[in-house]
Amino acid sequence: MDPTTQKQPEEQERHSLGVLQLLQSASKELQNYTLFLTKDPQAPIRALLNLGNEISALLDTVPNLFKLSHLLCNLQTALNELEATRGYGLRSIIRRQAIYYKISQLAGQIEREAQAYLDKDNIFRLVRTLDRSRDEGEQVKVLTELEERLSRGFDRDYQELILKAKVSCPRTIREHAAQVMVALIRFNRNVFVGLVLMGPTLEALISMGSCRSMEVLTSLVALVRSPLIDEIESLGEVPRIMNLLRSRDPATRAAAFDCLCEIAYHGRKEVIEAMLEQGLIETLLELQRQEQIDHDHDRERDDRGRGSEDRNEEEEEEEEEKRGGFHGAAAKFAVQVEVGEGLTNQERREFKMEILRRVKQACVSEAEAASVSAEVLWGSSP
Region Disordered: start and end of each range (predicted)? Predict the structure, then answer.
C-alpha cells in the first residue's frame, strides 16, 4: 500500500478535529459577543458559518456531524432574519434582540455539540492508544490531554464516556493514569471516589512503590481524607507504605514520608497507633541520623578542599536545601499528629507523650535524645 494512502485517514482526522476546535472557539466567542446590545454580531456569525461550510464538506467522511450541520443551518436562517430587520422602530429593536438571543442559544448548542464530538474522539483515542500503542510518549500525551479536559470542570456526558471506557496499560503508564485519577476525583468526587475506595486502586498504587505513585496516594488522602485512610488501615497497607522508607530511591523515600505525614494529619487514632506500633518513630530517627552522618561527611570533604572559613551564608543555605527529606523527621511527624484533624485533644496529648517515650528509647545518645525531644516538644506548636 502507498504510504501516502495510509497517511490520508490520519491527516483527515487531524483536519476534522482542527475544524471542530475552531468551530467550538468561534461559537463561544459569538455567545460573548451577543451579550452586548451595542455590537453587531454579523461578522462573527459569518466567520462561524464559513467554518460550517467545512463541516458540510466533512459529512460524507466523518460520522455524527449531521446535528451540528443542522444547527449551522438554523444559524444561517437566524442571520437572514437579522439582515431583514433593519428598522429603528421599537418593534424592530425588540425583534432584533429576540434574534440576538436566538443566535446566542444556537451558538451555545453548537459549542456543546462540537465539544461532545471532541470528547468522544478524546476518549476513543485514549482507549486505542493505551491498548495498542507501544509508544510511551503517545500514551503519556493522551493521559495529559484527559487530565487537561477534566480540569475544565464537571460535565455529565463526559463522565458517562469515562465510565464506559475500559483500558489496560503497562506500569509506567499506570503511574500517569494514577495522576489522572486525582483529576477525576476533583472533577466529581461523589462519582469517582468510589472507584478508589471499592476498586484495586489503593493496592495497585502501593504495589508500584514509586515516587509518583506515593505522590498520587498523598493527593488522594488529602482529597478523600478519613474514608480513604480507614480503607488503607483496614487493608493492612500502612506497613507497606512504611517499607518504602527503606527504598533505594531517595525521592521514593521522601514521597512515602510525605504520604505518612498526610495520613497522620487526617487519620484517626487507630491508624496513628498502627504506625507507631510498626516502629515509625524508630525508623525516622534512624533515617535522619544517617542523613546527618552523610551530610557531615560531605561537608568535611568539601572543607578539606577549600577551608570552612570560605563558606558564605548563601552556600550554607544551599547545603541545607540539598539535604534529604528526613532532617527533623520525627518532629515533623509529631507536628502532623498534633495539629491534625482526626484526633481529639486528649488523643493528641497522649500521642505526643508516646512519641517522646519512643524517641528517648530509640536515640543512641543523651544528646540526641535531648535534641529530638526538644524539637518534638517545642517545634510542634502550630
Answer: 291-329
CA-nearest of 96, 88, 106 to 31 is: 106
Q: Are residues 125 and 245 in the same domain?
A: no
The angle that helices 269-277 and 345-362 make with each other, rounded to 10 degrees, is 10
pLDDT at 7: 42
Q: Is residue 245 part of a domain?
A: yes
Q: What pLDDT, on the 0 to 100 scale, is given for residue 281? A: 95
Q: What is the pLDDT of residue 381?
A: 41
Q: Which three cell numbers, joined as nine digits, stand for 58?
A: 466533512
User: Is 53 exposed, middle or buried, given 0-12, 13-18 or 19+ CB atoms closer than 10 A?
Assistant: exposed
Per residue in 13-55, pLDDT (tens digit) is 777 888 888 888 888 888 876 554 556 667 778 888 887 777 7
Q: With helix as H, strand as E and coil as C, how does 83-99 read?
A: HHCCCCCHHHHHHHHHH
In a domain, 145, yes or no: no
The Cα–Cα gap between 115 and 28 comes to: 11
**DSSP conformational letter for 235:** T
Q: Where are the alpha helices (DSSP H) in 225-268?
A: 226-234, 238-243, 250-266
Signed CA dihedral, 167, 172, 178, 184: sign only: negative
**3-class DSSP assignment, residue 280:** helix
Quick one: pLDDT at residue 303? 62
DSSP string, 198-212: HSSHHHHHHHH-SHH
CB atoms within 10 A of CB 352: 16
List the domain range (segments joined by +) for residue 84: 11-132
Q: Domain ends where: 80, 107, 132?
A: 132
Short-list 242, 211, 216, CA closest to 228: 216
Q: Hey, what's the cell of 97? A: 434582540
Amino acid at 179: Q
What long-range pairs does 92-99 form, CB within 8 A, spacing at least 24?
Answer: 97/37
Residue type, 224: V
Q: Which segments in the chain show pLDDT lower than 70?
A: 1-10, 33-41, 57, 59-64, 166-173, 198-199, 300, 302-324, 379-382
50 Cβ contact partners less than 8 Å away, ≥ 6 residues apart: none
Dist. CA 122–CA 267, nearest whole Å: 38
The DSSP element (H or E) to which 127 belongs, if any, is helix 90-132
pLDDT of residue 270: 94
The closest of 274, 260, 250 to 333, measured between CA atoms, is 260
